[in-house]
Amino acid sequence: MAGRNTEETVGITFLGNQGTKYKMEYDASILETFVNKHQEYDYFVKFNCPEFTSLCPITGQPDFATITISYVPNVKMVESKSLKLYLFSFRNHGDFHEDCINIIMKDLIALMNPKYIEVWGKFTPRGGISINPYCNYGQANTKWENIAFNRLANHDLYPEKVDNR
Fold this sequence. Notes:
The protein is α+β, with helices and mostly antiparallel strands. 22% of the residues lie in helices and 25% in strands. The protein has helices at 80-88, 97-112, 143-153; strands at residues 33-35, 45-55, 62-72, 76-78, 116-123, 134-138. The strands form 2 sheets. It has a 4-stranded antiparallel sheet, sandwiched between helices. A two-stranded antiparallel sheet has the order 1-4. The longest helix has 16 residues, at 97-112. The radius of gyration is 17 Å and the shape is flat.
């Protein structure tokens, strides 16, 4: 079956909307979902957001990052434009890097109940140090719980070459 019928796209309001308003404050209610048409398979969906911005909660200075979100969908999937607007809503949100990454993961878990999810923030340096928080989650009592533990335990064993940040 190609395409999606009207019933499958109920609740998607941002995609195709030319009058989109960009929220300037953190807002998880922006996130929208659609039904995973391939629930019989396990597969990854990966998003890269190279223009993420938030604010330092102490100094108010902007922090810039590439946010990578990978997840194995269950029944629901996040709609990409709503995800973009959600990530944009952090623009004036003051929180530490680690908090932003965990908030994103928790909001997406609450929204979709994925089988597995990981969120990685690669923040540009300030004061000579870049911070790259990583968090993940696998559904309890499933193979994904073990996969999450193993991914965390073995995370970043082979870090990328840092040459441009």
